[in-house]
Structures are given as C-alpha cells and as structure tokens.
Amino acid sequence: MSITFIPVTSADHIPGETIIDHIDVVYGNTVRAKHIGRDIMAGLKTVVGGEIRGYTEMLREARDEALDRMKEDAIDLGADAVINVRFTTSMVMQGMAEMLAYGTAVRLQE
Hints:
34% helix; Translation Initiation Factor IF3; 110 residues
C-alpha cells in the first residue's frame, strides 16, 4: 500500500503552516486477533517477566495500518494534513482488539 505524503501530528497545528479549513474527523481502524503461538509464549513470559515481542510487533503493525487508513480517509476528503491525531484500542471480543487512529482533517493555505 502506498500512501501519498500527508503531514500528521498530535498537535493542534502544523508548524509553519496556516490552517484555512477544518474539514472533518477522519479515522482508520483495524481489528487484530491473538495468535495461539503468541498466547503460549505470553503465558510463559508472565512467569519470568519481560517484553512479549510477538504482541509488541502485532500492535506496531496495527498502529501503522490504522494510521495509513486514517490518511487515506483524509486524502479522500481533499485534506492537506491531519491534526490532533490520537490512538485508542478496545476489545471487540475475547482475543480480538481494535486499534483506532483518528484526527481532524484540515486544508492548509498554499
């Protein structure tokens, strides 16, 4: 998947740019399920402690995918940037979680 470059920030502005229009809230999400092999290793890690790399990687991939989908949503609306970006997660059902990225699509002065 190739996303056109679009500035994204958790701030309420893009440094050096003037926002001329707030278009709409944009979002992207993905739902991921746990992998039984990861669950077994996670269970072992609870005994000895430490990072559960399989889950760390899964969450990184989920954040990246949600962010890309949010950018696509913004581009479809004709936005130049997305401000006030936030991430949230929620459990959809046992063993499944949603990663959601959302923000405000804006147009910048040319």
